[in-house]
């Protein structure tokens, strides 16, 4: 039988862990679970939390560092900020994930990722040079702004700059070189930009013409607000099947879209609505068998890129 002092010490230890967990994760969302690949052989990030607010994610990372973890913050392609606890071989990453969950420092839906959806390391800061991805150039400011708005509707942080040769450059984003090359390659493969897209430090840019306001800010994003949810009706590893199903739902009158997720699956969504409306629509489509019974609601936090949408746009001639 345990003595009262021993029981008190054990209880005090449990309380200390719980208080540390609450302090670290304050203001952050625990990221949704992501299916892990049993065949994964590359190093993996342990994602303990994420937030739509950069400052909250950085504060959480600082608290994890104070607790002895190699925490970092990455901006993802869905404009969330992921708080990671390090980058390790799969076995060690799984062991660390299980440890922090057992200690209550992360929720049970903490997950592992190869970091494919990470665009930029926010914390700790590095001195890497940043490169613009130029999607197109145009002779007219109006055409350039129109393309930038269409790219924003697809979820990118697009801007327009007047260049030294009196043309207007439409950019997709501004990132460290390797990440910029990865995003450019992805955008070319998906037909979002053409093969002649290129990277630049922006030395030829004179003034920014779009969007108006503080440099680097964008008024639009594909991310939902905290009160909005996606209705997910299908998850598949086959992009073609996902697009075919999205087309079917679109013909039925739904705003169907396909997103690539962090675990490299494709999800078909039929709307982004306020929470109560999203729940009502999900129940309706399941009840009338328009959608399967395993349809679910999602914040879209693990969505990497939008692959298919009803939004159409055409590239302006340079």
Walk me through what this model shows.
This protein is 31% helix and 30% strand. Strand 7 and strand 8 form a beta hairpin. The protein is globular and about 60 Å long. It is of the alpha+beta class and 318 residues long. The strands form three sheets. Strands 4-1-3-2-5 form a five-stranded antiparallel beta sheet. Strands 9-6-8-7-10 form a five-stranded antiparallel beta sheet. Strands 14-11-13-12-15 form a five-stranded antiparallel beta sheet. The longest helix is centred in the first third of the chain and has 22 residues. The protein has three domains: 120 residues, no CATH class; 79 residues, Sporulation related repeat (Alpha-Beta Plaits); 81 residues, 2-Layer Sandwich (Alpha-Beta Plaits). The protein is built from seven helices and 15 strands.
Q: What order do the helices and strands come in, and which of them pair?
A:
Elements: H1 4-25, E1 44-51, H2 54-66, E2 72-76, E3 81-88, H3 90-102, E4 111-113, E5 118-123, E6 130-138, H4 141-153, E7 159-163, E8 168-176, H5 177-189, E9 198-200, E10 205-210, E11 228-236, H6 239-251, E12 257-261, E13 266-274, H7 275-287, E14 296-298, E15 303-308
Antiparallel strand pairs: 1-3, 1-4, 2-3, 2-5, 6-8, 6-9, 7-8, 7-10, 11-13, 11-14, 12-13, 12-15
